């Protein structure tokens, strides 16, 4: 098992924040990343559709000899973790559970959760946070314009600031202590969000906590990579590899050698 | 042929502007509408993917006994019209050609075209406008945030106004006489766009011109419906029928009886 890969999928490019955290924690692990860019975004789609897409993504990764599947997409983590755990006999981990755990650790009374419409409608964060700490008060808000703003590259733009203010002012008024960035795109807006909310509110980004969780799973199973051979990570998308490469290099602040097209209809090839 | 239906597809809900124009022009025609909401938006996807999705949508409509296929989606009209015309032996019509014709009629020197990234990158409007009038100067601009703003319902919102200004101010400075709204969502923002641009610029919305074109095709072929029996239009989506019904009723300003799920994998059923 040790030198098999970590399989990561997202609806698109946002999951690269999780990829980055995994590589920082475990530089010797090889990662195979799949971005389902032909069908993004997942955030506006139904539970059934998200589960179907997630199963297809996982099946593709399984053809690439992976030892774990990390769902680096909040919408998919909200709905599909159990379906994938049932179907496949390797560990499957989403970002919601680790993100919730981090939030519970930093909060005494009131926590805010933001995400896509699908993530917020699923109530997944609220459910798991309550399981861990039933007295916490949770204020949730979907912010559907954040992903298009990030993808347009309008990070520090007056319109972005105005939209952030409109979405988050009510949460600030509620005196939340912690805000969970429940979408892998949102960390890109971290600085502007921090400016709008002020220094008293802690921002939780689940990528790092998820990477730590993967490390502990491997450690407990004895599955950590035992090679220091330089292995090239692999990047697949279902559409537009050039765009993924270009925007991905901005996300990662380093070069991506190549991005290949994944044909999801060729299951089990 | 006469009492077969008009097949209309779009990536989602925007094509209802075309549906509405068709029914206003030809109230006796029955329309079967398909919104590919499981895979929307098309505007950020590649040519190959858009063609594949469009072929699947058309194949579904053909199982519903249609006499024409109207592509009520600018991204799909930009890339897929020819592929569909080659594959199927009924008329196939997109919105780009009728929209371009209307633009040429209202412009002496300079025309602006706005749309999704896919539509603008395709150069489809520019190509067809130049075929019709080679001396017109064309200024194109993609406006990727307009669709999410419309879907969020932020029509008359300060942030929307700021974003419209940022996208369109350069076109205004270029002294365009006409602006083609090259995306079926954009007519919803018509009033605010008019406010930002002023009264001197004519807005062209291709839905109406497309409906007129369909009428003339039917007339020339003798295919106009010859029944005045009240026939119920049919609405299909690939995901989230409830959402389509809710937002669709706002688009149409009337009740939609029911919206069914279309399973595109059941081709030719």
List keywords for this structure.
homodimer; 269 residues; alpha/beta; Rossmann fold; 2 domains; six-stranded parallel β-sheet; four-stranded parallel β-sheet; 11 helices; 10 strands; 46% helix; 17% strand; globular
Count interface residues per chain for the largest interface: A-B, 23 and 24 residues
Classified by CATH, the class of the largest domain in chain A is: Alpha Beta
Please outline the major beta sheet of chain A: 6 strands, parallel
Strand order of the largest sheet of chain A: 4-3-1-2-9-10
CA(first)-CA(last) distance of chain A: 21 Å
Please work out how many helical segments of chain A DSSP would assign. Answer: 11
Instruction: Assign the CATH architecture of the largest domain in chain A.
Output: 3-Layer(aba) Sandwich
Order of helical and strand elements of chain A: EHEHEHEHEHHEHHEHEHEHE
Mean pLDDT of chain A: 93
């Amino acid at each position: 098992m040790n030198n098999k890969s970590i399989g990561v999928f997202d609806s698109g490019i946002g999951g690269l924040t999780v990829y980055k955290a995994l590589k920082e924690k475990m530089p010797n692990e090889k990662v195979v990343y799949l971005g389902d860019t032909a069908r993004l975004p997942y955030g506006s789609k139904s539970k059934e559709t998200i589960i179907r897409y997630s199963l297809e993504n996982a099946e593709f990764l399984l053809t690439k000899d992976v030892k774990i599947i990390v769902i680096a997409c909040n919408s998919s983590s909200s709905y599909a973790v159990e379906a994938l755990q049932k179907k496949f006999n390797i560990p499957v981990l989403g970002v919601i559970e680790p993100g919730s755990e981090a939030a519970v650790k930093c909060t005494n009374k009131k926590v805010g959760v933001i995400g896509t419409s699908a993530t917020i409608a699923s109530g997944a964060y609220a459910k798991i946070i309550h399981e861990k700490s039933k007295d916490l008060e949770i204020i949730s808000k979907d912010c559907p314009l954040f992903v298009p703003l990030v993808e347009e590259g309008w990070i520090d733009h007056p319109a972005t600031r105005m939209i952030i203010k409109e979405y988050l002012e009510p949460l600030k008024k509620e005196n939340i202590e912690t805000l969970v960035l429940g979408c892998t795109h949102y960390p890109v807006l971290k600085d502007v969000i921090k400016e709008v909310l002020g220094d008293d509110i802690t921002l939780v980004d689940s990528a790092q906590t998820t990477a730590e969780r993967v490390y502990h799973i491997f450690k407990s199973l004895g599955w950590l990579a035992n090679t220091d051979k330089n292995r090239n990570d692999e990047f697949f998308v279902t559409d537009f590899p050039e765009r993924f490469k270009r925007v991905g290099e901005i996300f990662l602040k380093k070069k991506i050698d190549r991005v290949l097209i994944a044909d999801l209809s060729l299951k089990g090839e």
